[in-house]
Each structure stands twice: as C-alpha cells, then as structure tokens.
Structures
1.
Amino acid sequence: MNFLDPVFQILTHFQDHPESNLKLLLNHTLKTQKSLPSPKTTLLVYDIIRRQQILDTVIKRFSRIRLEKIDPRNRVLLRMGVYLLLYSDATPDHAAVNEIVGRSARSSRGFVNALLRNLARQRHQVLKDLQEIRDPKIRYSISPLLVSELNRISANPEENLQYLNTKPVFHLRANTRVLSVSRLRQHLTDRPRELLCILDWHPTKRPTRRDTPHGLLPFAFEH
C-alpha cells in the first residue's frame, strides 16, 4: 500500500500547519511522486480530513491516553487506521492494522496495534453507535463555529450540515492550459452527453488527452 506513505506525509503536514492550502499540498505531492495512484490518494486524504471529528471520537473511545497527549504522528496514523477499518471495504482488517503499525515508531507499536485490533473486533458495534450520535459537530465532523452559524442563519441546519458532509460522487480535473474552469462549467452545461461518456470510463483506466474531450480528464471516482 505505497499510497499510504504520501497520505501520511500530507496529513502530518496539514496537522502541523493547518493554515496550509491542502489542494496545493496534495497537488505538489502527487506531482513529485508520479507513480502514485492519485485518485485513491486524493480521496483518502480528503475523506480522512472530512471525517476527522468522527475518527477522533473513535480513538478517544479506545485509548487510555487523552487524544491531545498522543504523539502527533501517532494521531495521524490512528486516524488513517480507524478510517481504513470503518470506511474502506477494499482493505482487509489485518492488512490495515499491519500497514499502520508498521509505520509507527517501535516504542508506540504496542499501543497502536492494541487500539486498532480492539476496534477491528468491535467494528460493527462501533459503526452502529456512530449512527446514533446526535451531536452535529461529531455526526457531521463540522466545526462548532460553523454549526453555531448555521443554526443562526438556516431554517434547516440539519439538511445543510448533511449536504456539507457529503462526499462528491466523482471529481473532474481540467487541463487549464486547454480549458478554463468557466469554459468547463459551460461546456458540461451545454453538452451533458460528454459528461455521460466520462462516467462510462473505468476508474482504473488512465485516459490520454487524445481520448478526452477538450482537455477534460476524470480525476477521481467512487461507485
């Protein structure tokens, strides 16, 4: 799982420097390591950050060490491990645990291993319990400030929070040397059939510019 290394690198940097532009950080990492499976890496980075409140809630449940006292690198690794165990059907539990433990410091491996294996044994109950959480800050992994503001200005804050926490079905990347973002929006509005052609591409196939309309490339898919 070589894609976990850049994910760990990006998430660690973003944790230490939350003012960083995540999109630029991600693009820089993918550009400098061209062999990486960028759609998978991109989705994993964004989804772990999107679910951070939930992931931290699970870590707190299984850790005897307070979250803020856990080594920062281990916090990132545990978030990755919890995400893989709860939300990634593509990774077997034992493989997820081994990959995360193998990336932790030797002095921390016992702690990381025990926490993730306990979670793996209780996975179904944990997922059920998470569905019953009513606190919107945790349920939707949204900052308390944003929840408070939505409660103030929105007639239906719950619906807004659910929308904000919804992962896009797919992403598109445009080659801006060929097609501007504004032209891309207009193009997809005027020619919806070409969007359907894009959706027909298999997510593991890497199309060339010759295969794609007007510089448009599929960026990341989830089915």
2.
Amino acid sequence: WMLAPRLNVQDLAGAFHYFDAQTDDARLVLRVLREAVAAGTAMAADLSRRLGWLSDGDLAAIRQLQVKAGLPIKAPATISTEQFLSLMAVDKKVLTGQLRLVLFKSIGEAVIEVVGNGGIDIEQLKACIDACRDL
C-alpha cells in the first residue's frame, strides 16, 4: 500500500502485484470482443424474429450454434436497457445521428435497418434487449 498511499486498504478486497499474476491481455481482449459480437448477433436474431423475418426455428438454430461454440446468447445482466441504448448511440453503425442495426431477413441474408423515423420502433428494440437479458 506504500506505492499507493491514498488507497483505502480497509475496503480492499484483493489486488494483484505485478509479479504475482500473469495475464495474456491479447487473449482477454479477443475473448471480450468475441463475446460482445456473439451477444449482439443473438440480440439481432431475436429482434429479427420479433419483426417476423426469422422463424422460431431459425432463432433456435442460431442460439444452438452459438451455445455449441461456447458463445453467449443473452445480453449481459449488468447493463441496463438505457445503458445499452447509450452505448449503441456511439456505435460505429450510427450515421448522421441515426442508429442502424444489422438484422436478418433470413439466415444468410443480412439487412441494415434504422431505429426510429419509420424504421424499427425503439420500444421493440427495448423489449428485445430486456428479453435477451432474461433468457
């Protein structure tokens, strides 16, 4: 604690000293990215089913494939719906202030749809986020 004199050690639950543990940062980053893409894909598939583009069987097949690959199929429970929307608002798919989503018209056929302004209803998106968190 002498290296960090302002550290409140009374509330400290644990820590690493740089030579006490080894991590592979590249593997950790790649895993986090892979899981984020997988969760997004699962949510896109769910929203596509809600829009009537995918069947229940298509959605089940996508989820089954992701589970078999050891990938998540649900949204993280630690992120609220409003936090999701805030993060999505700064995503690379936002163009001229409009959120665009890559969805499935069918398995193997992706489309880009805008949220709001005659596109996907924001309430549908919120319902999808909530449902994907509760799987």
3.
Amino acid sequence: MSLTLLAVISLGSIGAVAAVILFAAAKKFHVEEDPRIDQVEEILPAANCGGCGFPGCRGFAEALVKADDLADYNCPVGGADVMQQAASILGKVAAVSDPMVAVVRCNGTCDNRPHLNQYDGAATCTIASSLYGGETGCSYGCLGLGECVEACDFDAMYMDEKTGLPVIIEDKCVACGACVKACPKDIIELRKIGPKSRRIFVSCVNEDKGAVARKACSVACIGCGKCFNVCPFDAIEMKNNLAYIDYNKCKLCRKCVVVCPTNAIHELNFPPKKVEATPAVDAKNVKVVTNAAVEEKKQKPASSVKTETDNKKSIENAREQNVSNDATIAPDKTTEKESAAAKAKAAKNDSVKDDSIDLSNEKTIEKESAAAKAKAAKNDSVKDDSMDLSNDKTTEKESAAAKAKAAKNDSVKDDSMDLSNENTTEKKSAV
C-alpha cells in the first residue's frame, strides 16, 4: 500500500470520527430557539442601524420576543407600522410613538460666526474637538467637518458649502440617531416631527453668558429669558444661560419666536404670518399743515385762543339745545309725518346756525390773525429802527475817536519837527 493512499484513509477516518462526535454534541447540547424571533426579524427593515439600541435587527427581534411589554421599544426606521406587525406576531400591544426627526441646533453660519483661525489637522470632528474649541469664538458650535454626514447610512444629510453646517433631509431621515451619537458637540437632537412637519426649537447650544455668546455669534441665545416669560404653556426652561423648548409641552403658538431678540428660535414649515392691511387714506380728507400755519399758530395771541374756545363752547351749547328740542318734539306730535317734518325743520335750522357760527368764527379768526401779523410787522420795524439807530451812534463814536487820534498824532509830529528845526539852528549858530 502506498503512502499516499494510507494518508487519505487516515485523514478520512479522523474526519468521520470528528463529525460523529460533533453531531452527537450538537444533539446533546442543543438549545431550543423561539421560532418567533425569525418571524419578527423578517418584518424588520434589516437596516442594522442600531437606532433601536441593540446590535442589529436580530438582536432587536430577540429583545422583543423576550420582553413582557413593548412600551419601551421602538424601531425608528420601520416606525409604528413595523411595531404593530411585531406586536401582532408576539400577541402583545405596541406603544404608539410619534415620528421623530433629527434637528441641528446650531445656526453658526460663516456670516453669523467670524472665523478666527484655520484648522489644519485630521478632518474629523472627534479629533478636532479634542484638540481645541474650533475656528470661531464659539466653542459649542458645529465644527463643520461632516462626521455626522459620514455616520448616516440613509443619505439623509449633507454639508452646505455656503453655511458650513449640516443639512438634514427630512424625507430620508429615519431618526436612527447615528448622527446624534457621531456629533462630539451634541448639537444634533431627535425631536418630534410635529403636525404638518411644523416644529419650534432653539437653534443654539452656547452656554456662555449673553455678551460673550453674542460676540462669538450674532444669532446666539443670550439667556435673556423673554421667551421663558412669554410662554403660556411652561414649555421653555432656562438652564446654564440657555433656553430649551420641550417639544412635548410646546403647542406651536410661536409667541417665543416673536420676542427673541437674536432670532435664535427657529420655526420650520410654518406659513408666513398675515400682515394686517393698513386702512386706505382718502386724500381729500387729509389736511396739509404748512410752515406758515404753524408760525401763525405760534404768533396767535392769547385773546384769539380764548375767543376760539368760547366759540367752540357756544357751538356745543347750541347743538345740545337743538338735540334737546328734537327730543321733546316727537312725543307731542300725533302723526309720524308731522314728527318727520319737525325733525327736518330742526335739522335745517341746525345747519343754518352752524354755518352762521362757523362763518363768524372764520371772520373773527381772520381779523385776529391779520391784527397779529400787523403787530408782528410793527414790532419788527421798531426793532430794525432801534438797531439802525444804535449802529449809527456806534459809527459816530468810532469816527470821533478816530479823528481825535489823528489830531493827536499830527500834534506829536509838529512838535518833533519844531524840535528838530531848533536843533539844526543851534548847530548852525555854533558853527
């Protein structure tokens, strides 16, 4: 027998014996597995994202089968439909949970946050955050290196080149939470989608004091507390100089959005607010006030103001008297026609009286304004005359002083010339 044949027979015998031993051990130590695990696993989306908190869909199926209550379990990818199917297989009741979506709580765009330095290192958020605070003055905001985008298995995120921030595509987001775990700054949060995809949240996580936060980012939450004071549902809490909106209590009234001085509170998918239309103004009823009218009113004497007041009082008294006359006419009449005729007559008398009173008032006001203007003109002329007279007197005094000074200078010159002539004569006589 050749050595080759002997080796084949030996190895084959060893393998057969080992197979028998393994089969006997498998039968001996066999563990029965619930067949419902496979059934539940089949209806799961097989995303293996870990959003449920278990290592893959198989681990989640095993947890569902072993659990007594499904209230604390949820498949973010499959949603309520998948959980209802799993509950029907297991004969249990699944808790109804609201759909969630990821939200980026940072609005520190390139325009809102000035860059102070440039990072030149490993392009991962985890490494950059462990080294320093970031390229801007805000050490809480997004680093913009896109590690959250890489962690998303559903292509529900991308980096906006203009703003430098991640953008979440709501239709693709399954709320698995992978981006939440990947972000070292904790700026991504899972929130309720809300009715008609409407939601309100504070897009800031800066815990610095107001002045420091505002200096680092123009749209940062400064912890002023205005939103906290205006919220009627106690849905906002202030903690560490930062406002936070509880989506379970928020009723989407949007009062907090209006009062925020830095626009740090965002409202998504809301219709634009209705702007109240201003009433139209009739140009015919607009009274134009000119500068001349203002000056005339300022220069109007007290007597004219008193006269106008008296006229107004007389007009009001006349109207009250006419109203009282109208009130007493109707009960005394026997027929409706007579009362209507009396009212028409009274109205006509009122209009005539009002016109006469208005005409007299207008004439009185015109006379008083003319008198005031004449008086003002007279005062101006008197002031001008007095100013001219004072100027003439000042000019005469100045000319007299100039003449006296000139005469004095002439006398001094004559004296000096006489003295020089005498000196010259003495010198000549001496010679």
